[in-house]
Design goal:
Structural class: alpha+beta
Order of helices and strands: HHEEHHHEEEEEHE
Strand content: 25-35%
Strand order of the largest sheet: 7-4-6-5-8
Shape: globular
Number of helices: 6
Distance between the termini: 37 Å
Largest sheet: 5 strands, mixed
Length: 208
């Protein structure tokens, strides 16, 4: 990651698809998610949307940077995405050190639809999930999930969750999805999707 983002290891090869406006943290989050929708600002002042889907990786070890930040004492108590972003913005001199703790790098391709999962099938909001492909060899498994999901943030800033159950299709995997009976639910786009993506870490029931 450091070689590519900071030392220009891939510069001049014509491999860039888009340029990120804000920070390397946004790129890192895109790598964690494995795909996404991006807002593209055009030269005429208009904007459009495009989709990025997973297209390979450098096979280096992956680690969520919050673990390193907690270990070093940079984050205390609150290790949320917002807290990570806030620390990086306030301490730019620590940025390269922190990102070096996760040398994994994901490469993307532009697609015309939602990010694709296994078999190049676009993911569907709150119907697609990812599982560990080393354990579950069959893609397209019909999966019934009973758990809780974030619904909103209350006046005290606490994330409120409610019970839910529904059918999903297992059609994706990922480097951070490891273990038996572990799954990631695809939440789509927008504020509620972001709330769900960064606050869903609960025990539930899963039936194939």
């Amino acid at each position: 990651r450091v070689a590519i983002d900071y030392n220009g290891a891939l510069e001049g090869k014509g491999l860039e698809i888009f340029y990120v406006e804000d920070s390397y943290f946004d790129l890192y989050l895109l790598h964690v998610q494995g795909g996404g929708r991006i807002k593209v600002y055009n030269e005429d002042g208009t904007h459009s949307y495009s989709y990025l889907s997973y297209d390979g990786k450098n096979s280096r070890p992956f680690q969520m940077i919050y673990k390193y930040m907690v270990q070093k004492g940079y984050l205390r108590g609150d290790a949320s995405v917002a807290a990570q972003r806030r620390f990086l913005e306030e301490n730019p001199d620590k940025e390269e050190e922190i990102f070096s703790s996760s040398p994994s790098y994901v490469y993307f391709k532009e697609t015309v639809e939602e990010p694709v999962g296994l078999d190049n099938i676009p993911l569907t909001e709150f119907r697609s999930l990812a599982i560990d492909s080393r354990i579950y060899k069959t893609t397209g498994l019909i999966t019934f999930v009973k758990a809780v999901k974030p619904t909103h943030v209350d006046q005290n800033g606490k994330v409120v969750k409610a019970p839910f159950s529904r059918f999903f299709i297992a059609q994706d995997t990922g480097g951070a999805i490891r273990g038996n009976a572990r799954c990631d639910l695809y939440a789509g786009y927008g504020p509620l999707a972001e709330l769900s993506a960064y606050n869903t870490n609960d025990m539930g029931e899963q039936y194939f």
